[in-house]
Write a structure and sequence with these properties.
The protein is an all-alpha fold. It has eight helices and no strands. Helix 1 crosses helix 3, helix 2 packs across helix 3 and helix 6 packs across helix 8.
């Protein structure tokens, strides 16, 4: 299925670690199938599907907050599913971005993924997450700053990225 790598990657961008990625992706695919009658074809199908996947992922995270605290120190194994269109360098870059995202707070991570991966506007993110507009802007700013800092620190460590 062409949509599966996209669903898995989006779920992985939104959650820390790989433990629940397959389960959440499966739940998201079920939600997509069940939600097909509500798709009005007013925009791109992928955009609609991305929002369904994000909502399913956030619902899963809400239900599992207690479990997340128990697994906070568990080692992280990377999952980034290559798509047929992705070049090998893009796959490596995605894996690297996932490792950096794993080091951010969930709040910053979710804001960044919704804004830069799903291309939602700040007001749309505010609505999606149910938080104030300025909070979204702050999380985006802090998340970008943290990512730049981590990337810069890696570059200073002799591992330069192009």
């Amino acid at each position: 299925m062409e949509l599966l790598p996209r669903v898995r990657n989006l779920v992985r961008y939104l959650v820390r670690g790989d433990g629940d990625v397959e389960d959440i992706a499966q739940e998201a695919l079920i939600a997509l199938v069940r939600g097909l009658p509500s798709y009005r074809a007013e925009g791109r199908f992928q955009s609609w599907a991305d929002r369904v996947v994000a909502r399913t992922t956030f619902a899963w995270l809400k239900r599992s907050r207690g479990r997340e605290a128990q697994h906070a120190d568990a080692p992280v194994e990377l999952v980034a599913v290559p798509s047929e269109e992705a070049q090998p360098d893009e796959y490596v870059h995605r894996r690297h971005m996932v490792t950096l995202l794993d080091r951010l707070s969930n709040e910053q991570r979710h804001a960044l993924v919704l804004h830069h991966v799903l291309e939602l506007s700040v007001p749309e993110i505010s609505t999606e997450l149910g938080i104030p507009f300025e909070t979204v802007r702050s999380r985006l700013r802090l998340g970008r700053t943290a990512l730049r800092s981590m990337a810069s620190a890696e570059g200073d460590g002799g591992e330069e990225r192009g």
